[in-house]
Amino acid sequence: MWTSKRRADCSAEPLRAIALIVLALAVGFLLFCALRRTPWRRGPIDIDAPGTTLVLVQVLVTAVDVLAAAATLWVLLPSVGIGFFAFVAIYVMAVALGVLSHVPGGLGVFELVILYAFGGNTPVNAVAAALVTYRGIYFLLPLLLSTVLLANFELRRSLDTATGRRIGVAASQLTPLFLAATTFSVGAILVASGAIPAFVDRFQILHVAVPLWAVEVSHFFTSVAGLFLLFAARGLYYRLDGAWWLALSMTLLSVPFSLIRGLEVVAPSLSLILLIGLVAARGQFSRRSSLLSQPLTMGWLVATGCVIAAMVWILFFAFRNVEYAHELWWQFEFDAAGPRALRAVLGVAVLGVTLGVSQLLRPAAARPSAPTTEEIDRARRIAIGQPHPEAVLALMGDKNFLFSDSGLCFLMFGTHGRT
């Protein structure tokens, strides 16, 4: 025992010597910065020492950054059997070796050092997973955020020109159409996903962390939210503020519902993208009109019906090996994916038919009769006496007239839908 302890002390001596040398160099550099007032010249080389305050601030900021990064990896790693500050020393050594390797970000070198240091005492796959997550949190996420900020800055600068302003106007005109198509697509995905069975391993996680009633409610209302998005898409096409609020609320609800019902990734991601688009384009939806005042055309009803029909087909295809029984309707279990999908399909179908029939049975739009020849002649006599050429638009035959009692003026108007 004494021999092994002596060998450990001997092996630690070179490390202590290196640490003392690095510490002496750091203290010497601080003294050089504090005492040197003029540049240090050696031939053609001039070294202007930075101020002591600047050096200390840089050291402090670097220390905080290193400690924060080390703490992030420390939390992600499984138990490694050493204290935090001992781990910080290993982390700093891994970073230093990554820098000396001249590999961008020390990719591979840093991971190799951490795996060598802790792979023997902890599961290698757990350490590797922690390193991947650490790279995503401390490198990939800041890179994505900085990319978005830089793109936003460059876009604002490019739009501050005549051509950029024209592009901006065209983009603002296309935004409602694009968001309407995106809303309909996201709604179709949410509706159809109600008939798709979730992954078994994800349900095992939900079984531990989420109660059964939350999974059942989330599964049902995710598809219902998707159906409402299908109907809100047409209102977004006409820039209705009511449609915007409906799409925003349903998108917000679909994100937690999609996560709770099966730990999904695609549907919540698409909902978040749609949510960002809706919030960014809020100013485009300023028409103060009721969503129900806009009738759904036959094409829109057919498209919605196709989505519901696709959901029914997916249900029969995904659960073709499940024999139907009346007991399926009230079977509530974590592994009962078929009954959940069956209830979601029924809810969406009933609600879709109800909304569709209510649109078909709503009062018909006004259909005024075409102006008579006498009214057009009367309007012509008044229009030719006006100094404004737009008065001649009354002679196109597609407008109705409201004449004054004196017969010297008139109002011309057209009808679009119920307006």
Tell me about this structure.
The protein is mainly α and 419 residues long. The protein has three domains: 14-138, no CATH class; 175-360, no CATH class; 373-413, no CATH class. It has helices spanning 2-35, 52-76, 84-100, 109-118, 124-159, 162-193, 200-209, 212-237, 241-262, 266-280, 298-318, 337-360, 373-383, and strands at residues 40-42, 45-47, 400-403, 410-413. The strands form two sheets. A two-stranded antiparallel sheet has the order 1-2. A two-stranded antiparallel ribbon has the order 3-4. α6 (162-193) crosses α8 (212-237), α8 (212-237) packs parallel to α12 (337-360) and α11 (298-318) runs antiparallel to α12 (337-360). The longest helix has 36 residues, at 124-159. The radius of gyration is 35 Å and the shape is flat. Residues 1-10 have low confidence and may be disordered.
The number of helices is 13
Distance between the termini: 96 Å
Low-confidence stretches: 1-10
| Overall number of domains | 3
Please summarize the sheet with the most strands. Answer: 2 strands, antiparallel
Topology, number of strands: 4
- What fraction strand? under 5%
